[in-house]
Amino acid sequence: MNNNIIILPIIIPMITAVLLIFFNKQEKVQKYLSAVSSVINIGISVFLVHYVHTNGIISLEVGDWKAPFGIVLVADMYAILLVLTANIIVFACLLFSYKIVDYNRSKFFYYSGVMFLLTGVSGAFLTGDLFNLFVFYEVMLMSSYFLIVHGNSKPQLRETIKYILVNVISSALFVISVAFLYAVTGTLNMADLSLRVAELGSSGIIAAISIMYLIVFGLKGAIFPLFFWMPGSYQAPPAAVTALFGALLTKVGVYSITRVFTLIFLQDIAFTHTFIAWLAVLTIIFGVIGAISFSDIKQIVIYNILTGVGVILFGVSTMTESGLEGSVYYMIHDMIIKGLLFLLVGIVFSITGTTNLDKFSGLIKKYPTLGWMFFIAALALAGIPPLSGFIGKLKIVQGGFEQGEFVLAFAVLLSSLLVLYSVMKIFINGFWGEEKIPQVLETSQVKSLYVPAAFLLALSLFYGLGTEFISSYIKQAEQVLLSPDLYIEAVLKE
Amino acid sequence: MTFLHWAILFPFLFAFMVPFLYKTFRKIHTGWFVLPLPICLFIFFLQFLPGVKYKEGIVQTVKWIPSLGIDFAVYVDGLSLLFALLITGIGSLVVLYSIYYLSKEKEQLNAFYVYLLMFMGAMLGVVLTDNTIVLYTFWEITSFSSFLLIGYWHYRERSRYGALKSMLITVFGGLSMLGGFILLYIMTGTFSIRETIAQSSSIADNGLFIPALILLLLGAFTKSAQFPFYIWLPDAMEAPTPVSAYLHSATMVKAGIYLVARFTPVFAGSAEWFWIVSLFGIFTLFWGSFHAVKQTDLKAMLAFSTVSQLGMIMSLLGVGSAALLFDHFEFYSVAILAAIFHLINHATFKGSLFMVAGIVDHETGTRDIRKLGGLMSLMPITFTIGLIGAFSMAGLPPFNGFLSKEMFFTGMIRVLNMDVFQTETWGFLLPVLAWIGSIFTFIYSMIFVFKTFAGKLQLENLPKKPHEAPIGMLIPPIVLASLVVIFGFFPNLLAYSLIEPAMKSVMPSLLKDGEHFHIHISHWHGFTAEFWMTVGVVILGIFLYLTASKWKRVYDLQPKRMTLNQLYDHSLKTAGKTSNRLTSFYMTGFIRDYLVYIFAFMIMAVGATMIIKQSISFAADDAAPVGIYELILSIVMIAGSITAVLARSRLTAIIALSSVGYSLALFFVLFRAPDLALTQLVIETVSTALFLLAFYFLPELQKKDKTRRFRLVNFIISAGVGGIVTLLAISASSERTGKTIAEYFLETSYSLGGGYNVVNVILVDFRGFDTLFEITVLAIAALAVYSMIRLRTGGKDVEENGFKNE
Amino acid sequence: MEIVTSIVAGILFMTATYLMLSKSLLRIIIGTGLLSHGAHLLILTMGGLKRGTVPLLDEHAASYVDPLPQALILTAIVISFGVTAFFLVLAYRSYQELGTDDMDQLRGNDQK
């Protein structure tokens, strides 16, 4: 089924970004234009979700060149749900940025950077071509280099160097892996790859290439043992940027792993997916250990990104209905909640001027709303019902048990306790206790920062309490992951 | 949504209104607004009393997430009704009590009642729902409302500590319980408790049965503070006394008991269940009462007492579960009867005692029994209530505690008659520990009432001048104490209305439709073994009480460093420190270390895969012939790259890099890729210029102090990476497929694309989408470079960075 | 020939990695340059070398070399050029602000 609308979530941010370049000196235009564009994008994404819900997977052959020869954009429920979530997060971060980002930064194309990032992310979700995925990754990466360093403070410069280096390596590995796969299969289209790899049967070289892809996407998705660049790189930029990264960037890596290992590399599940399961649990363990190591609230949330990635990948590795369904639920929840938590961290920073827990306490007296928002967000992060993280975790653990991976699944379940502990520490030490605030900055402005955070929180609450409304969508997403034929049919049988 | 559902949700909804009521009506204590709710709910639940006597139970369902089998199903039977009445009844009394206990000027009342109402609703949800996932949801909500209530005076460090401890332990149990529920789901295919019970016989042999059992019990034991998980309960006493009376004696801690009772039909009959529940319960009884004696804080004493009494009920449920195995079950089901009866009795006397402790604290300013004494004359009513409560707790006639204690002994003694599960060998432990535990129970009960009210009045040690409590604070404990007396004299009031239906819920398979358990509770059964046990308890108890100072030293036998509390504290601290050390160890901040980890992983993972999966292949037949020019160029490239590594000056390094780039361009020419060659030449030239420009500003290449090990590791890693890449490349080439999509491009480049240069047509037409975004990348790079150079924030940006600015 | 170029590419990767593991930022950037070259050479190899003639249809030849990898390499070259340019300016600005190009001293660990 052909539908030109699919390209809009990619093109609109890009055009917006370009337009914003020309109006870089008019701050008001920057804000209005980006906000309007974001809202339009959300609307289109919602429409697309609904459309795919009623009509099944839709695809667009760009330039009208038939798949698998031309590039295809594929909107299956999984991808389009993620696009929708990404747009919502960007909107919230934009609202946050309007209050926090000063004129100086906005003059230097900050908002264009955000829009370009969204372009790359949406493209990565929607593309059905492996090399096109690489190109969108580069768009996304380039924007991220830009945003991390934007402001040129010392920590930013330093961390950007390390970040770029790791990503240059991962890009090089990506490109040669595409080449390897092309040599063995002769195609770049993902659906076609699925067919051709299936034809090859159990092939040694394919197994090796699949591990290469795991490493490439794992570097982006921050799985164990490839995550080391993340804590530093995400700590350096301002909170709004970290929110974007934590909610979007790592998720693209996780998405790619999921897509590639449910569509293409299915020949050796006992080997590849068990490997992924172990890496996932190790990621959770290291994430949890990291989260309880430090007193810096930003670092605590950053290490929790690792845990989230591990949980999602564990669900994917089970290759069962429950596990895959759970990982879709959890992925969307994780994007929302990480965005929310980083925004809250940003608000705390605005109030106290620091993110070090040892330096402030007793915030709940003057900022009760903030405290309660944080409390609920913490509970949601840990997967406490009836909040947003629970259903996903439940299904993932169920999937693990069904696969007979009792120890690993139980480890996933128990990780919730340590996740809870790591963020409750922030609540108990930062919000409760005697009032001690090192410096108070712009209290009046702080209240307006609550709006984007409250928006995301409301979304998370709805996601948890009203799970029934979205369950049919998630089910549809999971179906494609479990049965690649649906995807291949939609793309190739045109 | 039926009224039952609303009954559970009303407290939550009401909780939203509390802050408004608090702000608008400052003059009136918010508690007065809250009070009607539990009272109405109590009356509402009373209406179900006649129903549960005869019918199976009433079920009503509302869909929550039907696609996942999770429904908000509500089920009223004897057991759930009993608990519901407890929750709402004691809840009303506690709210009334709190109105006088918490001063409306000094306290943040809105927060208090919000948490309390949330708890009430959640607790009702736990006992009334039929769906295990919904049960888990409400279970965790009780954990969190308890957390918030314990940490109510959060500026106190002890409160924060107690709150965290209770949360960690009960959430741990909750997660285990969830694991057990998931296993049950996998075994039965349903989340409904009733349906699980119906399938209980078929799952008994399932391999997952025992793990589910253990996980479920972990949940119950943590919530009900059984050994060794009890350590959170004494610290929970940091909460205001109304909270202690409500949550931590009458309701929340009983949730574990509820869980065990509710799931008895599923697990009863298995030896593991019998022994684990009974042994942990009886040991907790002993341990709790033993430690209660040495406490000096009234509330701590009551906390340990609660731990002990919960152990008692737990052991009774364990012992009673064996009744399933006997035809003559009524002989053994008396244990279940005792458990349920004591559940009610404990709520009455413990609740009253907590309130008494609260009154003493409120009026004198201290809870330390070393400073208290002689309050009998100043607070006569409180004294009477305390006496009734304490004597009931000690198990003395004519109070209700005596009756349930007798039945407790009966239940334990009858274990000796069972000969299942090897009770012949180990069964004696139960009545023995029961007896010893009861002795200590007697002792601390006496300590509680006599050390506080009898003896010398030490006015100088008391912060406040004591007087009798206001009537509002006395009514709730008076009500409870009256119940102690009433249930003591007329126990059979409850027998068929409340207790028997509850027993039916715990052991439904024992009775056929319409049948009932026969219950007759009385004070005197003759000179039975139980009678003599009680006599022994009293005599030994009085003796030990009077000689207390002599033997109290036995408490010092346990070294301070080996207590469970120490274990907990130590674990938390070590966890934090070890994590910190571990994480700081590998997160060095030095990018080279990170790259070493990453590359090493890549080499090992891909290498291992290649070996295991035999990926390496070597088929040279299809390969292109080697030409002399290409060979020379290859050597030049290799030489160039090695020069780049070994170069000492910046210029040499850059030129070496360029030489590689230009050789590559020549390669492109030789390999029939002219467009590529052109592009490469241009880009390489520009890059070299950029390199020269940038390096002009960067320092000279130093001869760094690099250790041999540093260089060796680098070398090994590099060799590994290079090797892997080469092997992959050769293998991939060998496995090359014949049909590629490029054929299509070659065929249609002119006909459909309109160009002879296929590569160009691919770039701008077939894969023009790629090119569009490739250009975008350049654009973003340009923006980035521009802002990097021009944007100056002056370095005083405290706003944006997580780090303290240098 | 594919085997030869695979080995050359492997050596390029090896030297690139060695350089990227060094302490000096300059060496690291030169390493990334070598890395790109190696990657591009590999892509070309994967398309099969010398299978035919240049992919210009007016040659009307019997067989052509695979044009697709060439297009991919072109895209990759441009993108890596953009990244390299950024990286170089970043190195320049970092040296200005931080005063050193030794990655060992740029750990940033004192903040924790």
TrEMBL record, chain C:
Residues spanning the membrane: 6-21, 28-49, 69-92
Keyword rRNA-binding: no
Topology of this chain in the membrane: Multi-pass membrane protein
Keywords carried by this UniProt record: Cell membrane, Membrane, Transmembrane, Transmembrane helix
Keyword NAD: no
Subcellular location field: Cell membrane
Stored NCBIfam families: PRK08600.1, PRK12660.1
Family: Belongs to the CPA3 antiporters (TC 2.A.63) subunit C family.
Protein name: Na(+)/H(+) antiporter subunit C
Organism ancestry: Bacteria, Bacillati, Bacillota, Bacilli, Bacillales
